[in-house]
Write a structure and sequence with these properties.
The chain contains 34 helices and 28 strands. It is an enzyme of class 2 (transferase).
Length: 948
């Protein structure tokens, strides 16, 4: 070893040759009892001879996607490779596994020699402090079964040819011996039970006086050799058998006597027909008073056929495992292959819907979309069911707003319920926590399944969703959900079928209602994973009630009740509705704020209530009126109230099942200043009232619950988008949909093209397919991130047809920012684009608004500079939305909307002393009122120039 550096140079020596010889000699005869001990001792000898710090042997598990350290050695002052020897994922070191399959060894002299794609291996080098490493494949019958690792952590090593050859030669002994030991152990387990129990009646039994002499035998043993019992009893082996058979038997007997204890031995010998048969011998010594062996009692089983059966069984097991893997792969491929064309179907239907169609054509498009959504629903059910079978269905734990999740789940079914004339009611009781930690997507999936069934099986009446807070223990809340309908009901005999796969209460081929019969099975499993149970009560012809409870941790991030809700204390509110459920829900929500609630079942009662309380402290401030009453509708009631002088200042809110086109304008003409749709959401109700009473302005009131339609979200900033997808149909769809929003994109057909494009141009958003030829999306993303370094960060969104367990996590691990599955929900896609635009605009071009106006704001208000900056940053966020809205209004020549937005821009700019924008906004408002389109465009251009 040189004293100038820490490199080791070991050539062949007597010690190394001796080590190789001793290792192979020892491993040839090594039995399962001493296997682990001798193996570790050998690793220690290798480590000492080559001055290594640690050595380990990895073997692949029966599931080839996992591996396990079977044995490891390390110097006293060095940490072991693994503190806990457990199954590890093979794909944790993709470059290593891929390379070791192709090469005889991997020699790494330093971390710097690792190639760029060895990301995880480089991380292991850094984390564990590895200086150098040699990896040698372990093969059995030319099949890779694992690998041996030789590492140095205290000094660098320059692996030389002779050194590598020695370690490769030694490593040859490990997999062969292990294979034999594994087989022996497996065989012992089998023989201990199965062979003796099944074949005992045909067992050979004999007793030996010494190595070459019988004492007695049974018929089975004698018949095996074509002899009679009398031919063998008390006879010498060499007197009754041919020389080869006698030598073979005496050799075995010697080994059994030498053991001097109960023992088992497998050996092959020819029977009287000359056939080679495999026998399994068990021996047990019978001792005299001096503890010497008097007889050796032996039993033998002919395991020739059994061994063949075991081999066949092992092959069948391998085939079954391969079939299971193939099944999972098939499901993944099925998901990918079906979702890809479905993306085209959804996309082209959406494009078709945006064209000029007749009423009949629109109906056809709606039916096609409905059928496509049903197909996607079935696919998702099958995939979830496969996850249940594989025990891979998992639950996330993230912070979310429980009330919002419930409202979102119910809202999906309101249009269908209204179409059928069914009322849906939602009541979230007061004690139910606002913010919890759990899985909002899976909770909504359960609610969707149950509410969907309720709507499907209910032809008339109502559906109520009640959410209650049951108990709390150690910050864990038990939330109960109850979904009650007035549908067809379920018989007692059929209830037990509901939570079994592919079953429905009506299983006839002519049944009226469709579905896979998997929804409730999946829901039941999800509820169990969330710590609860699901049950159902039903009466045929009357309806059903599904109950389930879940356990969720109460979030410490839960916000306090907003101050604007507290301001409703002692406000007098009249509810005009002939439906008791509606009134009960609205009353409960209002009473949480301390409001004084009055109720009326019809128009006459409502007018009487208003008049009788007119000159008292209970004078009605707000009236919430259901559109359709028994004696007159809401418009007629409003008209009547407006004729009463002291009732004209009452704020009127219209309550409808669904808002039809033109209804808002009509409602305003009759005196309604706002409207609410059923089922009523508590926050929307209270916020609406607060806005009507002027307790908060509309912008502030809607800040916590922005209503956004992505199809209207055209932006003055034209984002730079790259679409990476090898499927021509997908590219056409996305390009066409982007075009409807005045957006364009560049195209790349594989990861290699995308990498080149990203290196030549800065993109705001990259939509990246994952499965592509040449270079897939994961590798491309990883290389883009490496290319970007710690500076620039391009937003990369996975856009893939894969929907199996772990696909989202795989995308995020590769460096992607978000994930959207095919068929693509284009509303979500445009929301992602808009968020990116806001991030860019908010951070970039509009910063000069702050710089140019902060001094005047500080001087005019006396605020400190940080508070003033915070106000201006909030203003910019509002400014982005206003500019987007003004753009749409100008494009549609909607002067009324344009005037309103200009007025809002004028007010916010004036308040913050941003004089330049204020003056232009004032001119824009006037031009909009005068309906001068060209003037509006010119002024708006000046506003945008001023902002940038």
């Amino acid at each position: 070893m040189s004293s100038k550096d820490s490199y080791i140079n070991i050539s062949y020596s007597n010690d190394s040759l001796k080590l190789i010889y001793n290792t192979f000699q020892k491993f040839l005869d090594l039995d399962s009892t001493n296997y682990n001990k001798e193996l570790k001792k050998t690793l220690e000898q290798i480590g000492v001879l080559f001055d290594l710090d640690r050595i380990y042997l990895y073997y692949f598990c029966e599931d080839p996607t996992f591996m396990n350290i079977e044995c490891q050695w390390n110097k006293n002052e060095i940490k072991p490779k693994r503190e806990v020897e457990e199954d590890e994922a093979v794909y944790a070191f993709p470059w290593l596994i891929r390379t070791i399959k192709e090469k005889d060894f991997i020699a790494i002299n330093s971390k710097e020699e690792l190639p760029p794609e060895a990301i995880f291996e480089e991380e292991a080098f850094s984390t564990e402090g590895i200086k150098a490493c040699l990896i040698v494949p372990l093969k059995n019958e030319n099949k890779l079964v694992g690998f041996a690792g030789y590492e140095s952590l205290t000094k660098s090593i320059k692996w030389e040819e002779n050194q590598i050859k020695i370690l490769k030669d030694i490593s040859l002994a490990f997999p062969c011996t292990r294979s034999r030991i594994v087989k022996e152990r497996a065989y012992e387990l089998t023989i201990n039970g199965q062979a003796i129990l099944l074949n005992n009646s045909q067992s050979q039994i004999w007793a030996l006086r010494n190595v070459t002499s019988y004492a007695t035998v049974n018929e089975a043993h004698a018949q095996f050799f074509g002899k009679r019992r009398s031919d063998l009893e008390y006879q010498d082996l060499y007197d009754v058998f041919d020389i080869n058979t006698a030598n073979r038997l005496s050799e075995i007997n010697w080994e059994l006597f030498q053991k001097n204890a109960p023992w088992e031995k497998e050996f092959e010998i020819k029977n009287w027909k000359g056939e080679s048969r495999l026998l399994q011998i068990k021996s047990k010594p019978q001792r005299d008073k001096a503890n010497n062996i008097k007889y050796l009692i032996c039993t033998a089983e002919d395991i020739t056929e059994q061994r063949k059966a075991e081999n066949e069984l092992y092959k069948a097991k391998e085939q079954a495992e391969a079939a299971n893997i193939a099944k999972s792969q098939f499901l993944a491929n099925m998901s990918h292959e079906i979702r890809t064309p479905m993306n085209g179907i959804f996309g082209f239907l959406e494009l078709l819907e945006s064209t000029k169609l007749s009423l009949e054509q629109k109906a056809f498009v709606n039916e096609a979309k409905s059928a496509s959504e049903m197909l996607l629903y079935i696919i998702n059910d099958i995939l979830d069911f496969s996850k249940i079978e594989a025990k891979k269905l998992t639950i996330e734990n993230i912070n979310f707003n429980l009330r919002t999740a419930i409202d979102d789940a119910v809202s999906l079914f309101v249009p269908k319920a209204v179409e059928k004339g069914i009322e849906i009611y939602v009541m979230v009781k007061e004690d139910v926590p606002e913010e919890v930690i759990g899985d909002p997507a899976r909770l909504k999936q359960v609610l969707n399944n149950i509410i969907s069934n309720a709507v499907k099986f209910t032809e008339a009446g109502e559906i109520s969703v009640i959410v209650d807070y049951m108990e709390k223990e150690n910050e864990i809340a038990v939330i109960q959900f109850k979904v009650k309908d007035t549908g067809i009901g379920i018989s007692k005999d059929d209830i037990h079928k509901l939570f079994k796969p592919f079953n429905q209460a009506d299983a006839s081929t002519t049944r009226k209602y469709g579905g896979t019969g998997l929804g409730l099975v999946i829901s039941s499993e999800l509820v169990k994973l969330m710590g609860g149970e699901i049950s159902v009560e039903s009466i045929v012809g009357t309806g059903s009630t599904f109950k389930f409870d879940v356990k969720m941790k109460i979030s410490k991030m839960a916000p306090k009740r907003q101050d604007l809700f507290k301001k409703l204390d002692n406000v007098n509110i009249l509810i005009v509705d002939n439906n008791e459920n509606n009134k009960n829900i609205i009353r409960a929500y209002l009473q949480e704020t301390g409001s004084n609630v009055f109720e009326a079942n019809n128009a006459a009662s409502a007018i009487t209530t208003v008049i009788s309380n007119a000159n008292t402290k209970n004078k009605i401030n707000v009236a919430i009126i259901e559109y359709q009453m028994s004696d007159m509708n809401a418009y007629e009631i409003a008209t009547t109230l407006k004729t009463i002088p002291f009732a004209r200042d009452i704020k009127l809110i219209l309550l409808t099942s669904v808002t039809q086109k033109g209804e808002i304008r009509a409602a305003k003409e009759y005196g309604f200043s706002s409207n609410l749709t059923k089922p009523v959401k508590r926050d929307d109700l209270l916020r609406c009232i607060a806005i009507e009473l002027g307790m908060v302005n509309e912008e502030e009131g809607n800040k916590t619950s922005p209503k956004h339609t992505n199809k209207e979200a055209k932006n003055t900033y034209n984002p730079s988008i790259l679409l990476v997808d090898d499927n021509e149909m997908n590219r056409k769809i996305v390009i066409s949909i982007l075009k409807t929003h005045d957006m364009v994109c560049d195209i790349a057909m594989n990861g290699s093209e995308a990498l080149k494009a990203a290196s030549e141009k800065d993109y705001d958003v990259i939509f990246m397919d994952c499965q592509m030829p040449v270079m897939d999306g994961y590798e491309c993303t990883s290389k883009i991130r490496s290319m970007e370094g710690d500076g620039k960060h391009t937003k990369i969104i996975a856009m893939t047809a894969n929907a199996m367990e772990g696909d989202c996590e795989k995308c995020i691990q590769a460096g992607m920012d978000a994930y959207i599955s095919k068929p693509i929900n284009f509303d979500i896609m445009f929301k992602m684009i808009e968020d990116s635009i806001k991030e860019i605009n908010g951070k970039g071009d509009y910063n000069n608004v702050i710089e140019n106006n902060i001094d005047s704001l500080v001087e005019a208000t006396g605020l400190d500079r940080e508070d003033a900056k915070e106000l201006l940053e909030e203003y910019i966020k509002c400014l982005l939305d206003l500019i987007a809205g003004i753009t749409i209004a100008i494009d549609n020549s909607d002067f009324s909307k344009l005037a309103g937005l200009a007025h809002e821009l004028k007010g916010s700019s004036g308040t913050l002393r941003i004089t330049s924008i204020y003056e232009l906004a004032k001119k824009l408002e006037k031009a909009a009122k005068d309906q001068e389109l060209n003037e509006c465009i010119n002024i708006f251009t000046q506003i945008k120039d001023t902002c940038h």
